[in-house]
Queue: 4 jobs
Job 1
Amino acid sequence: MTLVIPAIDIRGGRCVRLHQGSYEEETVYFDDPVQMAKLWRVQNARTIHVVDLDAARGGSDDRAHNRDAIRKMCEVLDIPIQVGGGIRSLSQIEAMLDQGVYRVILGTAAIRDPDLVEAAIDRFSCRRIVVGIDARDGEVRVQGWTEGSGVDAVTFAQEMEARGVRRIVYTDISRDGTMSGPNVEAYRAMGSALDEMKITASGGVGTFDDLLDVQTLQPYGVDSVIVGTALYENQFPCQQFWGWNDLDQLDLDTFSTAPLREDAAPSADDEGRNPPSPGRDDRS
C-alpha cells in the first residue's frame, strides 16, 4: 500500500502552495499551519511533510516564526513529522530532532556538502536523515528551487545511496502544484538506477487515478507519495466526509481513535514499525 503524505509548505508563517516552485505564484490556504496539521491528522494522516520555504530560500526573518510553528506541530500531533528547508548543519539537524521532528530532509546541503550527509547518517541514522532531490528537466535545483546545480538527479541519487542514504524525496518541480499527474517515467527511471533506496514521490498528483499510477511504481522502490494542492482543493471524494467547509465547528484537538496498525506504519523499512511519539529520541 502506498502511503499518502499531506504536505504543509510554510511561508511567512502561513500555509501556502507554490505553482511549479515559483514564489511569485503562491496561494495561501490557511493562516495557521498548526491548525492545518491538526486538520490533516483529524482526516487520518499517518505522517506530515513540512517544508519551511523561507528557510529553504534563505535570508528571511520569517524563518524563526516558521520554526516555532513546526515546534508547535510536534507538540500537538501524535504522528511523525518530516521537515525540510534550510537545514544545513549537524547542529540544525540536532535542534530539529530534539524538538520532536521525526525525520530531517537535506536538500541544498546534500548537494553542496555531501560529507554532511554521511556525518548526519553516522550520528542520527538513515532512519532520521532523508535527502530531498528537487529536479527540473533532470537537473537538481537548490536554494529553494531558485538555482540550478548542474547535477543530474539520477547520478546524484546514486551517490547518496553509496553514502548510506536509504530514502529520497524526489520532486518533479515542473509538476509540483499543477495537479497534472505525476512524472511516472522519471520515478521509474530513478528507481531502476538504485539498489536499496526507497523513494517518496512528490509533484503532480491531482486525482485518485494518479494515486493508482503511483501505486504501480512499488517495484521501483516508490512506497509513498506527497500530496499537496489536490488535498487543499478537495479533489478526492473521501474528503466530502469531512467538515472542510465547517472548520469553525471541527474539534481539531480530537484525533481519530483508529489504531495505528503495525502493518501500516509509515515506511516500516527504515522508520521502524512503531513511529515514535513527539519528542521521543530513538537515535541509539
Job 2
Amino acid sequence: MEAIKTKIEVTEKERLPVVSEREAVFEARDLAVYYGDQRAIDGVNLDIYQRLITAIIGPSGCGKSTFLRTLNRMNDLVPAARLTGQLRYRGIDLYGPGVDAVEVRRRVGMVFQKPNPFHSSIYDNVAYGLRILGMKKDLDERVEKALRAAALWDEVKDRLKDSALGLSGGQQQRLCIARAIAVEPEVVLFDEPASALDPISTSAIEDLMHELKRDYTLVIVTHNMQQAARVADMTAFFGLDVSPDGNRQGVLVEYDETEKIFTNPSDKRTEGYVTGRFG
C-alpha cells in the first residue's frame, strides 16, 4: 500500500525493539465486554508492552474507553458489566479468582478526561492514596517525588496547603497525574486527558507523557489523531462492526507501531479513518 497522504505528522521516536524482544505487561485474548446483553467490544487480541505509550483511537462508540477500563477493572463498578475471554497482567489472569481489584487499581492508575482534584489541599490530594494504602512512611518525600515527576513541584511547592481547586486546568490535570503515580503504579491509563485543556496545557501533558514513559507503561485513549501520532509508540485502531443480530460492537481493526498505522496501514478501514474519509 502506498504511503497515505495525510497532514498528520508522526514524530520521530526511538527505534522500537522487534516484537519478540518486547516485554508484554497486558495480554488480551478473545476479549469481549458486555453491558447486560449488549456487547460493547468483541474478539480483542493484543499485547501492551512495557514502558511504551500505546494509543487507542477510533470513532465514538467503538469501545475505546470500555477497553481501557478493563485494564484496571474499573468496569467492575458498572452494573451488569461482564467480560469473556482473558486478560493477563504479567501472566496473571486479571479477572481470575482471588485477584484483588483494589490492588489492581494501585498497580494500574488512571487519569480521567476532566481534571478531578479533591476539595482539599494540593498536598492532601497527592497524599490521599498513600494514606489509604498505608504508605505513610516518608510521606512528605513521596508527595514531593510525585509532584516533581508530574512537572508540578516548582509551581506549587510554596503553596501545598492551598486548595487544589485554585490551580489552572492544566495544573489540576498534572496534579491528578501526580496523585495517580504517588502510589507507585506500573501502568498509568489516560482517558482523553487533554480534551478539556487549552493547546499550551495539552502540549505540557504530552511532554510529560514522554518523560513518564521512562518509568511507566502508558495507555491513552484519544480522539485526537495528531496527539496519538505525536506521543504514541504503538497505536490500536478500534472500529464499529454490526453483527448478524444487529448488535453494534467495537472491534480491534489494526494494531501496530504508530508510524505504520498513520503512513502505511494494513487495513482499508484504518486508512479511511486516519485520512478523515470516515469517522
Job 3
Amino acid sequence: MEQDVLLRVQGLKKVFRSGESDLTLFENLSFEAKRGEMLAIVGESGAGKSTLLHILSALDRASAGDVYCAELHLNALSADEAAEFRNRETGFVWQFHYLLPEFTAAENVAMPLLLRGQTWQQAEPDASRWLREVGLEQRGHHRAGELSGGEQQRVALARALITGPKLLLADEPTGDLDGQTAEAVFALIARLHREHQLTSLIATHNLSFAGRCHRVLRLGRGRVEEIKPESLLA
C-alpha cells in the first residue's frame, strides 16, 4: 500500500438476506483515503452509509471485497483482533452519543482506556485533557443526563479520540442536533481532524458540512461515485 494511503477499499459488496431473497445493498465499491484526508459520505437513507462505516471499522464483514487499513487486512482479522483494531486504530462517533448514564463525563471519556485495563488513576489525566480539548473541562463530574445534546456529543468525540486513533469514523454526528449546535460540533470535528492529523470519514445528510470536506463520496443504487465538494455549496 502506498505510504500516504491509510485506507483502501477494493470491490466491496454487502448482501443481506431478506426473507426468501437477497438484498444487495452495494457492490463493487472501491476507493482510497489518504492520510490526513477528510471524506464525506453522502446518500439517501438506506443507501448503506452506516453499513459501510461498520465494515471499515471491523464491526461488520463485507460479503465480498477487501478492506485494508495501513498494513492490516481487515477481512483476515479474528474477532479478538478486530476488537483490538477498533480499540487502538479507530475512533467512532454515532448519531446518538451512547454515553453510559450512570457514569460522569470524565468516566465516559476514559472508558476505552479502562477497558484496556488501565486504572482510573492512570486514565483520568488523559480524560481530563480530552475534555479540555472539546471545551468541557468544567463538566467532567457531570453525568450524561446533566449535559446538553451538544455537550453529550462532544464527550462522545473525546471518548472516540482518547486512544489516539489514526482513523475517525462518524455516522451522522450532528443528526440529532439543532442547526447552531450542529455547526459547533462540525467545526470541532474539523479542528480536531487538523490538529491530530486524523483521517476522517463522515457520513452526513448535511450537504453544507459535506461540501467543506476534502472529498465527497456519494453512495446510491449500490454504487459509489466521487463528486466535487464545491458542487454541494452552490
Job 4
Amino acid sequence: MRTSSNPAFRNLPTSPGGYARFGDAPAGMAGGMFGGGGSPMPTAAADDRPLTVDDVVQKTAINVVLALAVGVVTAWSGLYVLGLLGFVVGLVLALIIIFKQSTNKFLVLGYSAAEGMALGAITGVFQNIATSPGGTSYAGIGVQAVLGTLGVFIGMLVVYKTGAIRVTPRLTKMVIGAAIGVVVLMLANLVAGFFVPGGMGLRDGGTLAIIFSLVCIAIGAFMLMLDFDQADQAVKAGVPARFAWYLAFGFMTTLVWLYIEILRLLSYFRE
C-alpha cells in the first residue's frame, strides 16, 4: 500500500490486497490500531456498516463548514488573540487524533473549530491592515484564499478521478520527500530570521518567496491526491463507516496547509 504525505493517513495498516484495513495492527503494537485494553478493534462486519464515499464527503463537508463559520466569526470579532489559542488547541487535538487514530467526532470537530479560529484570526489581521490609515490593501484576501483552496481541491479531485495523474509508489515517495524538504526549509528560514533580517528570503515577499509559496501550494495539491487515494482504498476495503471522521480530519490538515500558503501568496501581491 502507498503511504501518504499526510500524517493522518501514513500509518494505516493494509489488507493482503493492498487496501487500508483499520482492524489490523502492525507487528508489536498491542491492542490493535484503534482498540484499547489489549483487545483488537472489531471488524466492519461486526461493528457497523461499511464506509462509503458519501460518508467521507459528508463528514469532510461538515468540518469545512464548521471551520469556515468559526473563522468568519473570529475575523469579524476582532479577537485575534484567539488565533494563538486556536493553533495550540488544534495542534494538541491533531496529535491526539493521529497517535490514537481516533474516530471520535468531537475531537475531529474540535480540531476543525480550533483551526478555523486560528485561520480566521490570521485573516482578520490582514483585513485590519487593509482598514488602517496608509495600510496595504488586503481587502477580500480571505475570500480569495477560500476560493483558491476550493479551486485546488476540486481541480485535484478531477485530476484524480479522471486518472490524468495516477498515484503510484514513486509519486508518493516524491511528494513525501518534497513535503519533508519544504518543512525543513521553513524551519531553517525561521532560525535564520533570528540572526539575519528576512532570514533566507523564503517569506519576505520577494521573488524567491513567491516561488517558494507556489512550490508549497503544488505540494499541498499533490498531498490531496494522496489523500483521495487513501480514502478510496479505505472505501474499497470496507472499513467501518465511523472512520469517515478520521479521513475527514486528514483532509482538513491538508486544506489548512493549502489555505495558509494561498493566503500568504496572495499577500505578496498586495504589498
